């Protein structure tokens, strides 16, 4: 019997994961088509005169998810990259001379909380005990569900678990049950920003992110986050996945309810028995399929709560920087008005919060000797106009604060500068509204309420990645590939 031909669109974490899982069964031949000339999607890298920039993700959380991924193929992350645990995990900048280094050690972390609010260390134990339970049920069970039917969640023990996990309470209320000092509340609410919404709109289930942050730690793969992608590509190829770069899909041809072939921009036609779309869901659903085969209408997509987009700066600095850590969260302005500018009244924020990463502090290989690799990120509402003037205006705003708070001149030491925003996300990844992180994990966009992983009208077309289950972020995207692969195997009786 000839093997069925699976074609995966997109070489992000999700596309690479699903392709590798299916190739590993030896029952499929797998081709992966990538629009860009290098792998990784939002986690690509680029180099300029000795500076090596990770283009997207920079936080390595949930190391067990990466271990699980590689273990499914008899491998370990250390077969592909060397992990370092960061200490301090990161720094939170509340204002001028008001900086908190977040220690990796749990005892020191509790002491730090006690110094801010008496008794908060003991409260953390209770908070984390519940968060650990959520992490175990959430990451080792819930996120692995394909979420195609409510029945998947209809086991009595799971229902009890879901009640225990405060699934219907907001993260914001949950945190305030344990802590009252504003600094601690902001610290505890920060991790859910990774899920694309504020703590008011994220279910308390996601205090599991605090467990990931505080108990499991912040890690860094030496030479950068792209090393994970390099490892995944090497594993995919070892399993027989054929990867074609600069291979943009322009159309999926459907006949009698089955996807039959893909048409590339080059004109090449590739036949397929099964197609799995790891490219942005909206792009595949609304632009690669004829309208009668779309899973969702344009109105549906318009009504989704998208996670933010971002304005990014990749900077090469010709001196070493002081008073900064590997990860620096600038919370020196209140979150409320910035969140309003992202979610409620989309606009450029008046006083943006931002994030600065200096990986060369940990890793000398990502900048020339004596220099620094600086990455800046401002989260923004999707679908904004990102003119050069706007980018420069915001560069000025955050540079003023960065220079003042860290007490040094930076602008005059910039030897390389590149900005990246909405229009780049659209051009490079076909990102809906120029989103950076996909779809927000709000209560009404969780599990079966997310865009489904299978097309309802085209029997052999599936979706994976940060716009479907389980959600945005590197670990969920990795898991998403595995979830879809298992559905494909099940439906092909493997
Ligand atoms: C700036 C930024 C910072 C982030 N920080 C973090 C972080 O610190 N930690 C974390 O865990 N997560 C982070 N994330 C989120 C994380 O990077 C994403 O959730 C994850 O990488 C998404 O993977 P994916 O496979 O779903 O999609 P993608 O990486 O977008 O992959 C989709 C691929 O499909 C390709 N494609 C699109 N259209 C076509 C087509 N027509 N034909 C062929 N190929 C096509 C694209 O080129 C792309 O390679 C960050 C994201 C961004 C943008």
Describe the structure.
- With 494 residues, the protein is an alpha/beta fold.
- It has helices at residues 13-24, 63-71, 106-116, 120-140, 156-164, 171-178, 182-189, 208-216, 226-238, 281-288, 298-303, 335-344, 388-406, 422-429, 474-491; strands spanning 4-9, 28-33, 45-48, 51-54, 83-85, 90-95, 98-102, 219-221, 242-244, 249-255, 258-264, 269-271, 274-277, 309-317, 327-330, 354-357, 372-380, 414-420, 461-463.
- Strands 7-6-15-16-17-14-18 form a 7-stranded mixed sheet. A 5-stranded parallel sheet has the order 9-2-1-13-19, with helices on one face. A 3-stranded antiparallel sheet has the order 10-11-12, with no helix packed on it.
- A hairpin with a 2-residue loop joins strand 3 (45-48) and strand 4.
- Residues 9-15, 33-36, 41-43, 56-59, 248-249, 278-279, 283, 310, 312, 377, 429-430, 436-438, 465-466, 472-474, 477 line the site of flavin-adenine dinucleotide.
- Flavin-adenine dinucleotide binds at residues 9-15, 33-36, 41-43, 56-59, 248-249, 278-279, 283, 310, 312, 377, 429-430, 436-438, 465-466, 472-474, 477.
């Amino acid at each position: 019997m000839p093997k069925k031909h699976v074609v995966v669109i997109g070489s992000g974490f999700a596309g690479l994961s699903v392709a590798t899982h299916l190739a590993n069964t030896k029952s499929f031949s797998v081709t992966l088509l990538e629009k860009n000339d290098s792998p990784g999607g939002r986690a690509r890298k680029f180099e300029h005169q000795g500076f090596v920039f990770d283009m997207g993700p920079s936080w390595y959380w949930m190391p067990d998810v990466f271990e699980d991924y590689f273990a499914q193929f008899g491998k370990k992350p250390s077969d592909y990259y060397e992990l370092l645990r960061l200490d301090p995990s990161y720094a939170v900048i509340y204002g001028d001379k008001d900086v908190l280094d977040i220690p990796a050690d749990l005892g020191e972390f509790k002491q730090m909380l006690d110094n801010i609010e008496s008794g908060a260390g003991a409260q953390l134990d209770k908070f984390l005990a519940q968060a650990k339970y959520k992490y175990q049920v959430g990451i080792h069970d819930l996120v692995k569900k394909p979420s195609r039917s409510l029945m998947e969640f209809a086991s009595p023990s799971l229902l009890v678990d879901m009640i225990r996990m405060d699934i219907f309470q907001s993260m914001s209320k949950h945190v305030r049950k344990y802590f009252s000092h504003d600094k601690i509340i902001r610290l505890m609410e920060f991790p859910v920003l990774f899920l694309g919404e504020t703590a008011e709109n994220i279910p308390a289930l996601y205090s599991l992110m605090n467990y990931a942050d505080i108990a499991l730690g912040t890690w860094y793969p030496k030479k950068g986050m792209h090393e994970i992608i390099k490892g995944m590509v090497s594993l995919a190829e070892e399993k027989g996945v054929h990867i074609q770069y600069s291979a943009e899909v322009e159309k999926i041809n459907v006949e009698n309810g089955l996807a039959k072939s893909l048409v590339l921009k080059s004109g090449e036609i590739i036949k397929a028995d099964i197609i799995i779309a790891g490219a942005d869901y909206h792009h595949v659903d609304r632009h690669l399929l004829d309208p009668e085969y779309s899973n969702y209408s344009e109105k549906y997509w318009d009504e989704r709560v998208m996670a933010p987009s971002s304005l990014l700066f990749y900077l090469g600095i010709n001196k070493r920087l002081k008073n900064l850590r590997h990860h620096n969260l600038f919370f020196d302005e209140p979150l409320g008005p910035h969140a309003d500018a992202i979610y409620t009244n989309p606009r450029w924020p008046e006083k943006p919060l931002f994030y600065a990463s200096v990986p060369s502090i940990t890793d000398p290989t990502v900048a020339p000797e004596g220099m620094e690799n600086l990455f800046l990120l401002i989260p923004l509402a999707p679908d904004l106009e990102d003119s050069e003037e706007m980018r420069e205006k915001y560069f000025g705003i955050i540079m003023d604060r960065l220079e003042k708070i860290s007490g040094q001149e930076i602008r005059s030491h910039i030897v390389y500068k590149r900005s990246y925003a909405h229009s780049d996300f659209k051009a490079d990844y076909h990102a809906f509204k120029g989103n950076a992180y996909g779809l927000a994990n709000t209560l009404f966009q969780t599990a079966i309420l997310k865009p489904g992983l299978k097309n309802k009208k085209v029997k052999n077309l599936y979706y994976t990645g940060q716009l479907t289950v389980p959600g945005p972020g590197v670990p969920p995207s990795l898991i998403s590939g595995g979830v879809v692969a298992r559905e494909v195997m099940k439906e092909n009786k493997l």
